[in-house]
Amino acid sequence: MNVTVIGTGHVGLVTCVTFSCIGHDVVGTDVDAEKIELLRRGEAPFFEPGLDEALRQETSEGRLSFTGDAETALRSADVVFICVGTPARADGVANLVAIERTASAIARWAPDDVVVVEKSTVPAGTADRLRLTLEREGGRSRFHLASNPEFLREGSAMHDALEPDRIVIGVESEHGLDVLRRLYAPIVDSGVPLIVTDIRTAELAKHASNAFLALKISFANALARVCERADADVTAVADIMGSDPRIGRAFLDAGLGYGGYCFPKDVAALAALSEQLGYRFPMLREVQRVNDEAVDAVAAKVRDGLWNLEGKRIALLGLAFKPDTDDIRFSPALALARNLLAAGAQVVGYDPRAARGAKDELPDLGLANSPSEAAAGAHALVIGTDWPEFRDIDLAMLKRVMTYPLVIDGRNLLNRADFVGSGFWYYPTGRPPVVPEARRVDTDTSNGSGAHRSQDQPAPIA
Ligand code: UGA
Fold it and tell me: Of the candidates 44, 18, 239, 39, which has an alpha carbon nearest to the alpha carbon of residue 150?
Protein backbone atom coordinates (compact mmCIF):
# COMPACT_ATOMS: atom_id res chain seq x y z
CA MET A 1 0.00 0.00 0.00
CA ASN A 2 1.28 3.53 -0.75
CA VAL A 3 1.55 5.54 2.43
CA THR A 4 2.37 9.26 2.57
CA VAL A 5 3.38 10.85 5.84
CA ILE A 6 3.25 14.64 6.10
CA GLY A 7 5.52 15.96 8.84
CA THR A 8 8.69 14.15 9.91
CA GLY A 9 8.95 15.11 13.58
CA HIS A 10 8.97 12.46 16.32
CA VAL A 11 5.56 11.04 15.49
CA GLY A 12 5.85 11.42 11.72
CA LEU A 13 9.29 9.88 11.34
CA VAL A 14 8.51 6.94 13.61
CA THR A 15 5.27 6.46 11.63
CA CYS A 16 7.27 6.40 8.37
CA VAL A 17 9.68 3.79 9.68
CA THR A 18 6.95 1.69 11.29
CA PHE A 19 4.83 1.35 8.14
CA SER A 20 7.93 0.69 6.08
CA CYS A 21 9.08 -2.00 8.56
CA ILE A 22 5.76 -3.82 8.17
CA GLY A 23 6.06 -3.89 4.38
CA HIS A 24 4.38 -0.77 2.96
CA ASP A 25 5.84 1.75 0.51
CA VAL A 26 6.26 4.98 2.41
CA VAL A 27 7.09 8.54 1.35
CA GLY A 28 7.74 11.13 4.05
CA THR A 29 7.55 14.84 3.32
CA ASP A 30 8.27 17.97 5.32
CA VAL A 31 8.50 21.72 4.70
CA ASP A 32 11.90 21.75 6.41
CA ALA A 33 14.36 21.19 3.55
CA GLU A 34 17.32 20.64 5.89
CA LYS A 35 15.50 17.84 7.66
CA ILE A 36 14.67 16.17 4.35
CA GLU A 37 18.35 16.34 3.33
CA LEU A 38 19.39 14.63 6.57
CA LEU A 39 16.71 11.97 6.19
CA ARG A 40 17.77 11.26 2.63
CA ARG A 41 21.24 10.52 3.97
CA GLY A 42 19.63 8.07 6.42
CA GLU A 43 20.15 10.29 9.47
CA ALA A 44 17.41 11.09 11.99
CA PRO A 45 17.27 14.79 12.99
CA PHE A 46 16.85 13.81 16.68
CA PHE A 47 17.95 11.01 18.98
CA GLU A 48 15.57 8.10 19.45
CA PRO A 49 16.91 4.66 20.42
CA GLY A 50 16.81 2.24 17.45
CA LEU A 51 15.54 4.84 14.98
CA ASP A 52 18.79 5.52 13.09
CA GLU A 53 19.36 1.82 12.38
CA ALA A 54 15.77 1.23 11.24
CA LEU A 55 15.86 4.37 9.10
CA ARG A 56 19.06 3.32 7.32
CA GLN A 57 17.75 -0.20 6.74
CA GLU A 58 14.35 0.89 5.38
CA THR A 59 15.76 3.59 3.08
CA SER A 60 18.50 1.31 1.74
CA GLU A 61 15.96 -1.44 1.01
CA GLY A 62 13.93 1.09 -0.98
CA ARG A 63 10.61 0.94 0.89
CA LEU A 64 11.08 4.34 2.51
CA SER A 65 11.96 7.64 0.82
CA PHE A 66 11.73 11.35 1.58
CA THR A 67 10.96 14.38 -0.53
CA GLY A 68 10.46 18.06 0.13
CA ASP A 69 7.95 18.19 -2.71
CA ALA A 70 4.47 17.55 -1.28
CA GLU A 71 2.95 17.08 -4.73
CA THR A 72 5.31 14.20 -5.56
CA ALA A 73 4.67 12.68 -2.14
CA LEU A 74 0.89 12.85 -2.53
CA ARG A 75 0.26 11.93 -6.19
CA SER A 76 -0.02 8.16 -5.72
CA ALA A 77 -1.03 7.93 -2.05
CA ASP A 78 -3.61 5.38 -0.93
CA VAL A 79 -3.48 6.78 2.55
CA VAL A 80 -2.05 10.03 3.96
CA PHE A 81 -1.02 10.48 7.60
CA ILE A 82 -1.04 14.05 8.93
CA CYS A 83 1.76 14.28 11.49
CA VAL A 84 2.42 18.03 11.63
CA GLY A 85 2.81 19.99 14.87
CA THR A 86 -0.17 21.29 16.84
CA PRO A 87 1.55 23.60 19.38
CA ALA A 88 -0.37 25.41 22.10
CA ARG A 89 -1.16 29.09 21.54
CA ALA A 90 -0.69 31.47 24.49
CA ASP A 91 -4.29 30.79 25.62
CA GLY A 92 -3.73 27.01 25.53
CA VAL A 93 -5.85 26.47 22.41
CA ALA A 94 -4.14 24.16 19.89
CA ASN A 95 -2.75 26.01 16.87
CA LEU A 96 -4.04 24.12 13.83
CA VAL A 97 -2.56 26.29 11.08
CA ALA A 98 -0.19 23.53 9.95
CA ILE A 99 -3.10 21.05 9.79
CA GLU A 100 -5.06 23.45 7.57
CA ARG A 101 -2.08 23.96 5.22
CA THR A 102 -1.66 20.20 5.01
CA ALA A 103 -5.34 19.80 4.15
CA SER A 104 -4.94 22.27 1.26
CA ALA A 105 -1.99 20.30 -0.13
CA ILE A 106 -3.93 17.03 0.14
CA ALA A 107 -6.97 18.60 -1.53
CA ARG A 108 -4.83 19.80 -4.41
CA TRP A 109 -2.65 16.78 -5.10
CA ALA A 110 -3.94 13.55 -3.54
CA PRO A 111 -5.90 11.13 -5.76
CA ASP A 112 -9.61 10.41 -5.52
CA ASP A 113 -10.68 8.13 -2.64
CA VAL A 114 -7.54 8.74 -0.63
CA VAL A 115 -7.85 8.02 3.10
CA VAL A 116 -6.78 11.07 5.12
CA VAL A 117 -5.72 10.20 8.66
CA GLU A 118 -5.14 12.60 11.55
CA LYS A 119 -2.23 11.28 13.60
CA SER A 120 -1.26 14.63 15.11
CA THR A 121 -2.97 15.22 18.44
CA VAL A 122 -5.93 17.49 17.68
CA PRO A 123 -9.00 18.75 19.55
CA ALA A 124 -12.25 16.83 19.05
CA GLY A 125 -14.04 18.31 16.06
CA THR A 126 -10.90 19.01 14.00
CA ALA A 127 -11.93 16.45 11.36
CA ASP A 128 -15.01 18.55 10.60
CA ARG A 129 -12.82 21.55 9.79
CA LEU A 130 -10.48 19.31 7.82
CA ARG A 131 -13.41 17.99 5.78
CA LEU A 132 -14.54 21.51 4.92
CA THR A 133 -11.10 22.50 3.63
CA LEU A 134 -10.76 19.27 1.65
CA GLU A 135 -14.20 19.74 0.08
CA ARG A 136 -13.74 23.43 -0.67
CA GLU A 137 -10.30 23.05 -2.17
CA GLY A 138 -10.46 19.52 -3.56
CA GLY A 139 -13.04 20.02 -6.30
CA ARG A 140 -14.90 16.81 -6.99
CA SER A 141 -12.43 14.42 -5.35
CA ARG A 142 -13.65 12.09 -2.64
CA PHE A 143 -11.81 11.87 0.67
CA HIS A 144 -12.22 9.37 3.50
CA LEU A 145 -11.37 10.90 6.85
CA ALA A 146 -10.04 8.97 9.83
CA SER A 147 -8.37 9.59 13.17
CA ASN A 148 -5.58 7.31 14.37
CA PRO A 149 -4.04 8.85 17.51
CA GLU A 150 -0.49 7.92 18.40
CA PHE A 151 0.47 6.76 21.90
CA LEU A 152 4.22 6.39 21.48
CA ARG A 153 6.62 7.78 24.07
CA GLU A 154 9.89 9.46 23.21
CA GLY A 155 12.75 7.20 24.23
CA SER A 156 10.77 4.01 23.50
CA ALA A 157 8.98 5.19 20.36
CA MET A 158 10.09 2.35 18.07
CA HIS A 159 8.91 -0.29 20.51
CA ASP A 160 5.67 1.58 21.23
CA ALA A 161 4.91 1.92 17.51
CA LEU A 162 5.68 -1.66 16.52
CA GLU A 163 4.23 -3.29 19.64
CA PRO A 164 1.52 -0.89 20.86
CA ASP A 165 -0.92 -1.65 23.68
CA ARG A 166 -3.75 -0.89 21.28
CA ILE A 167 -4.45 0.74 17.93
CA VAL A 168 -7.30 3.27 17.93
CA ILE A 169 -9.07 4.09 14.69
CA GLY A 170 -11.90 6.60 14.32
CA VAL A 171 -13.58 6.30 10.92
CA GLU A 172 -16.63 7.43 9.02
CA SER A 173 -16.59 5.17 5.94
CA GLU A 174 -16.25 1.45 5.16
CA HIS A 175 -13.46 2.23 2.70
CA GLY A 176 -11.50 4.16 5.36
CA LEU A 177 -11.83 1.28 7.82
CA ASP A 178 -10.90 -1.32 5.22
CA VAL A 179 -7.72 0.55 4.20
CA LEU A 180 -6.60 1.06 7.81
CA ARG A 181 -7.35 -2.56 8.71
CA ARG A 182 -5.18 -3.75 5.81
CA LEU A 183 -2.47 -1.25 6.69
CA TYR A 184 -2.22 -2.39 10.31
CA ALA A 185 -2.84 -6.11 9.60
CA PRO A 186 0.76 -7.23 10.36
CA ILE A 187 0.60 -5.61 13.82
CA VAL A 188 -3.02 -6.56 14.60
CA ASP A 189 -2.37 -10.16 13.51
CA SER A 190 0.33 -10.40 16.17
CA GLY A 191 -2.39 -9.93 18.80
CA VAL A 192 -2.58 -6.14 19.30
CA PRO A 193 -6.18 -5.02 19.97
CA LEU A 194 -7.75 -2.77 17.32
CA ILE A 195 -10.34 -0.37 18.69
CA VAL A 196 -12.69 1.05 16.06
CA THR A 197 -14.79 4.08 16.94
CA ASP A 198 -16.06 7.36 15.51
CA ILE A 199 -13.63 10.18 14.70
CA ARG A 200 -14.56 12.58 17.52
CA THR A 201 -14.21 9.85 20.12
CA ALA A 202 -10.78 8.89 18.78
CA GLU A 203 -9.67 12.54 18.78
CA LEU A 204 -10.84 13.05 22.34
CA ALA A 205 -9.40 9.74 23.58
CA LYS A 206 -5.88 10.95 22.85
CA HIS A 207 -6.25 14.22 24.78
CA ALA A 208 -7.99 12.36 27.60
CA SER A 209 -5.21 9.76 27.83
CA ASN A 210 -2.40 12.32 28.00
CA ALA A 211 -4.31 14.55 30.42
CA PHE A 212 -5.06 11.60 32.70
CA LEU A 213 -1.41 10.50 32.75
CA ALA A 214 -0.43 14.10 33.60
CA LEU A 215 -3.05 14.07 36.35
CA LYS A 216 -1.51 10.92 37.84
CA ILE A 217 1.90 12.60 37.90
CA SER A 218 0.50 15.76 39.52
CA PHE A 219 -1.37 13.63 42.07
CA ALA A 220 1.95 11.97 42.99
CA ASN A 221 3.66 15.38 43.22
CA ALA A 222 0.95 16.87 45.44
CA LEU A 223 1.21 13.76 47.58
CA ALA A 224 4.99 14.31 47.75
CA ARG A 225 4.37 17.74 49.31
CA VAL A 226 2.14 16.08 51.94
CA CYS A 227 4.66 13.27 52.57
CA GLU A 228 7.44 15.83 53.11
CA ARG A 229 5.34 17.45 55.80
CA ALA A 230 4.16 14.15 57.32
CA ASP A 231 7.55 12.38 57.34
CA ALA A 232 6.18 9.70 55.02
CA ASP A 233 7.68 8.20 51.87
CA VAL A 234 5.86 9.02 48.61
CA THR A 235 7.57 6.18 46.72
CA ALA A 236 6.28 3.63 49.22
CA VAL A 237 2.82 5.24 49.17
CA ALA A 238 2.82 5.01 45.34
CA ASP A 239 3.91 1.35 45.51
CA ILE A 240 1.04 0.57 47.86
CA MET A 241 -1.48 2.50 45.75
CA GLY A 242 -0.11 0.94 42.57
CA SER A 243 -0.50 -2.59 43.86
CA ASP A 244 -4.24 -2.04 43.48
CA PRO A 245 -4.90 -2.92 39.82
CA ARG A 246 -7.66 -0.32 39.74
CA ILE A 247 -4.99 2.36 40.26
CA GLY A 248 -1.82 0.95 38.69
CA ARG A 249 1.75 1.97 39.59
CA ALA A 250 2.70 3.65 36.29
CA PHE A 251 3.05 7.47 36.18
CA LEU A 252 2.96 7.84 39.96
CA ASP A 253 6.63 8.83 40.27
CA ALA A 254 6.96 12.12 42.10
CA GLY A 255 9.77 14.46 41.11
CA LEU A 256 10.26 17.59 39.05
CA GLY A 257 7.03 16.93 37.16
CA TYR A 258 6.16 16.33 33.55
CA GLY A 259 7.55 18.15 30.54
CA GLY A 260 8.09 17.48 26.85
CA TYR A 261 6.16 18.53 23.80
CA CYS A 262 2.99 16.59 24.59
CA PHE A 263 1.69 16.67 28.17
CA PRO A 264 1.92 20.44 28.79
CA LYS A 265 0.24 21.33 25.50
CA ASP A 266 -2.34 18.55 25.64
CA VAL A 267 -3.47 19.37 29.18
CA ALA A 268 -3.80 23.03 28.14
CA ALA A 269 -5.59 22.10 24.90
CA LEU A 270 -8.14 19.86 26.64
CA ALA A 271 -8.82 22.56 29.25
CA ALA A 272 -9.26 25.15 26.47
CA LEU A 273 -11.44 22.85 24.37
CA SER A 274 -13.71 22.07 27.34
CA GLU A 275 -14.11 25.78 28.04
CA GLN A 276 -14.85 26.51 24.37
CA LEU A 277 -17.53 23.84 24.56
CA GLY A 278 -19.04 25.50 27.61
CA TYR A 279 -17.70 23.18 30.30
CA ARG A 280 -15.10 24.41 32.80
CA PHE A 281 -12.59 21.71 33.75
CA PRO A 282 -10.62 23.35 36.60
CA MET A 283 -9.08 20.00 37.55
CA LEU A 284 -6.84 20.37 34.49
CA ARG A 285 -5.70 23.85 35.53
CA GLU A 286 -4.82 22.36 38.92
CA VAL A 287 -2.80 19.61 37.22
CA GLN A 288 -0.75 22.36 35.54
CA ARG A 289 -0.36 24.35 38.79
CA VAL A 290 0.87 21.33 40.76
CA ASN A 291 3.29 20.57 37.95
CA ASP A 292 4.82 24.06 38.15
CA GLU A 293 4.93 23.74 41.94
CA ALA A 294 7.04 20.56 41.60
CA VAL A 295 9.92 22.60 40.14
CA ASP A 296 9.48 25.31 42.79
CA ALA A 297 9.62 22.67 45.55
CA VAL A 298 12.98 21.35 44.36
CA ALA A 299 14.31 24.91 43.96
CA ALA A 300 13.21 25.64 47.54
CA LYS A 301 15.20 22.63 48.77
CA VAL A 302 18.31 23.98 47.03
CA ARG A 303 17.75 27.36 48.70
CA ASP A 304 17.12 25.75 52.09
CA GLY A 305 20.28 23.70 51.74
CA LEU A 306 22.51 26.56 50.62
CA TRP A 307 21.15 29.62 52.40
CA ASN A 308 22.07 32.18 49.70
CA LEU A 309 22.44 31.22 46.07
CA GLU A 310 24.59 34.16 44.97
CA GLY A 311 28.08 32.89 44.25
CA LYS A 312 27.10 29.23 44.74
CA ARG A 313 27.81 26.62 42.09
CA ILE A 314 25.14 24.02 41.42
CA ALA A 315 25.71 20.87 39.38
CA LEU A 316 22.58 19.85 37.49
CA LEU A 317 22.65 16.27 36.23
CA GLY A 318 20.14 15.85 33.42
CA LEU A 319 18.70 18.56 31.19
CA ALA A 320 16.36 16.61 28.85
CA PHE A 321 12.68 16.39 29.78
CA LYS A 322 13.14 12.66 30.39
CA PRO A 323 15.87 10.04 29.84
CA ASP A 324 16.75 8.47 26.47
CA THR A 325 16.01 11.60 24.49
CA ASP A 326 17.78 14.81 23.47
CA ASP A 327 14.48 16.71 23.68
CA ILE A 328 14.56 19.74 25.99
CA ARG A 329 11.14 21.15 25.11
CA PHE A 330 9.34 22.18 28.33
CA SER A 331 11.99 20.31 30.30
CA PRO A 332 11.40 20.59 34.07
CA ALA A 333 15.19 20.36 34.56
CA LEU A 334 15.64 23.49 32.45
CA ALA A 335 12.82 25.24 34.30
CA LEU A 336 14.74 24.50 37.49
CA ALA A 337 18.00 25.79 35.97
CA ARG A 338 16.22 28.99 34.97
CA ASN A 339 14.87 29.40 38.49
CA LEU A 340 18.30 28.91 40.12
CA LEU A 341 20.09 31.18 37.65
CA ALA A 342 17.52 33.91 38.31
CA ALA A 343 18.32 33.60 42.03
CA GLY A 344 22.01 34.28 41.35
CA ALA A 345 23.46 30.76 41.32
CA GLN A 346 25.96 29.47 38.79
CA VAL A 347 24.43 26.34 37.23
CA VAL A 348 26.62 23.79 35.48
CA GLY A 349 24.66 21.13 33.64
CA TYR A 350 25.52 17.73 32.27
CA ASP A 351 23.36 15.59 30.00
CA PRO A 352 24.42 12.64 27.85
CA ARG A 353 22.31 13.85 24.89
CA ALA A 354 20.63 17.18 25.48
CA ALA A 355 23.51 19.51 26.41
CA ARG A 356 23.69 21.42 23.13
CA GLY A 357 19.96 22.04 22.87
CA ALA A 358 19.87 23.11 26.51
CA LYS A 359 22.66 25.64 26.01
CA ASP A 360 20.88 27.09 22.94
CA GLU A 361 17.73 27.47 25.03
CA LEU A 362 19.50 28.81 28.11
CA PRO A 363 22.79 30.54 27.19
CA ASP A 364 23.66 31.33 30.85
CA LEU A 365 23.82 27.64 31.66
CA GLY A 366 27.35 26.28 32.11
CA LEU A 367 28.08 22.89 30.56
CA ALA A 368 30.25 20.04 31.74
CA ASN A 369 31.44 16.97 29.84
CA SER A 370 30.82 14.50 32.65
CA PRO A 371 28.99 14.26 35.97
CA SER A 372 32.31 14.58 37.85
CA GLU A 373 33.24 17.72 35.91
CA ALA A 374 29.83 19.22 36.72
CA ALA A 375 30.24 18.30 40.40
CA ALA A 376 33.76 19.73 40.75
CA GLY A 377 33.58 22.64 43.18
CA ALA A 378 29.76 22.47 43.37
CA HIS A 379 27.98 23.50 46.56
CA ALA A 380 25.07 21.23 45.65
CA LEU A 381 24.30 18.56 43.09
CA VAL A 382 20.76 18.20 41.75
CA ILE A 383 19.32 15.30 39.74
CA GLY A 384 17.14 16.87 37.05
CA THR A 385 16.52 13.92 34.71
CA ASP A 386 16.44 10.24 35.63
CA TRP A 387 19.06 8.99 33.18
CA PRO A 388 19.90 5.44 34.40
CA GLU A 389 23.65 6.15 34.21
CA PHE A 390 23.37 8.68 37.07
CA ARG A 391 22.04 5.96 39.36
CA ASP A 392 25.52 4.54 39.94
CA ILE A 393 27.26 7.83 40.56
CA ASP A 394 30.32 7.39 42.78
CA LEU A 395 29.54 9.06 46.12
CA ALA A 396 33.18 8.92 47.28
CA MET A 397 34.20 10.78 44.11
CA LEU A 398 31.46 13.37 44.70
CA LYS A 399 32.61 13.86 48.27
CA ARG A 400 36.15 14.51 47.06
CA VAL A 401 35.27 17.03 44.36
CA MET A 402 32.26 18.92 45.74
CA THR A 403 32.52 21.99 47.96
CA TYR A 404 29.55 20.92 50.11
CA PRO A 405 28.29 17.33 50.45
CA LEU A 406 24.72 18.16 49.41
CA VAL A 407 22.59 16.19 46.93
CA ILE A 408 19.02 17.08 45.97
CA ASP A 409 17.31 14.31 44.06
CA GLY A 410 14.59 15.83 41.88
CA ARG A 411 13.76 12.43 40.37
CA ASN A 412 14.15 10.04 43.33
CA LEU A 413 16.73 8.26 41.21
CA LEU A 414 19.50 7.57 43.71
CA ASN A 415 19.44 4.86 46.35
CA ARG A 416 18.53 6.57 49.60
CA ALA A 417 20.23 3.85 51.68
CA ASP A 418 23.62 4.65 50.06
CA PHE A 419 23.53 8.06 51.72
CA VAL A 420 23.04 6.77 55.26
CA GLY A 421 26.33 7.26 57.12
CA SER A 422 27.93 8.79 54.00
CA GLY A 423 28.38 12.29 55.42
CA PHE A 424 26.08 13.68 52.72
CA TRP A 425 22.95 15.73 53.13
CA TYR A 426 20.55 13.95 50.77
CA TYR A 427 17.17 15.47 49.93
CA PRO A 428 14.97 13.22 47.80
CA THR A 429 11.45 14.26 46.70
CA GLY A 430 8.57 13.36 48.99
CA ARG A 431 10.78 11.05 51.06
CA PRO A 432 12.57 11.59 54.37
CA PRO A 433 15.97 13.21 53.87
CA VAL A 434 19.26 11.74 55.06
CA VAL A 435 21.56 14.02 57.03
CA PRO A 436 24.93 13.36 58.65
CA GLU A 437 24.38 11.66 62.00
CA ALA A 438 25.85 14.33 64.25
CA ARG A 439 23.23 16.83 63.06
CA ARG A 440 19.82 17.06 64.73
CA VAL A 441 16.96 17.32 62.24
CA ASP A 442 13.89 19.50 62.53
CA THR A 443 11.03 19.34 60.11
CA ASP A 444 10.33 22.92 59.27
CA THR A 445 7.12 23.37 57.37
CA SER A 446 6.90 27.11 57.94
CA ASN A 447 8.80 28.05 54.80
CA GLY A 448 6.24 26.44 52.54
CA SER A 449 8.73 24.17 50.82
CA GLY A 450 8.10 21.41 53.36
CA ALA A 451 11.78 20.53 53.12
CA HIS A 452 13.28 18.93 56.17
CA ARG A 453 15.94 21.18 57.60
CA SER A 454 19.01 20.31 59.54
CA GLN A 455 20.03 22.63 62.33
CA ASP A 456 23.06 23.68 60.37
CA GLN A 457 23.62 24.29 56.71
CA PRO A 458 25.95 21.71 55.14
CA ALA A 459 29.50 22.54 56.10
CA PRO A 460 32.29 22.68 53.54
CA ILE A 461 34.27 19.50 53.34
CA ALA A 462 37.48 19.99 55.27
C1 UGA B 1 3.58 11.05 26.18
C2 UGA B 1 2.67 9.83 26.36
O3 UGA B 1 3.19 8.98 27.39
C4 UGA B 1 2.54 9.03 25.05
O5 UGA B 1 1.62 7.97 25.23
C6 UGA B 1 2.05 9.98 23.96
O7 UGA B 1 1.96 9.32 22.70
C8 UGA B 1 2.99 11.16 23.82
O9 UGA B 1 3.09 11.84 25.09
C10 UGA B 1 2.46 12.07 22.75
O11 UGA B 1 1.37 12.62 22.93
O12 UGA B 1 3.06 12.15 21.67
P13 UGA B 1 6.23 11.46 26.13
O14 UGA B 1 5.88 12.91 26.18
O15 UGA B 1 7.22 10.97 25.13
O16 UGA B 1 4.89 10.57 25.88
O17 UGA B 1 6.84 11.06 27.54
P18 UGA B 1 6.35 10.29 28.87
O19 UGA B 1 7.15 9.06 29.03
O20 UGA B 1 4.88 10.15 28.91
O21 UGA B 1 6.81 11.33 30.00
C22 UGA B 1 6.29 12.66 30.06
C23 UGA B 1 6.85 13.40 31.24
O24 UGA B 1 6.32 12.91 32.46
C25 UGA B 1 8.38 13.33 31.40
O26 UGA B 1 8.87 14.61 31.72
C27 UGA B 1 8.58 12.37 32.56
O28 UGA B 1 9.78 12.58 33.25
C29 UGA B 1 7.36 12.69 33.41
N30 UGA B 1 6.93 11.61 34.32
C31 UGA B 1 6.52 10.42 33.82
C32 UGA B 1 6.93 11.84 35.70
O33 UGA B 1 7.31 12.93 36.18
N34 UGA B 1 6.50 10.85 36.54
C35 UGA B 1 6.06 9.65 36.08
O36 UGA B 1 5.66 8.79 36.90
C37 UGA B 1 6.07 9.43 34.68
Answer: 18
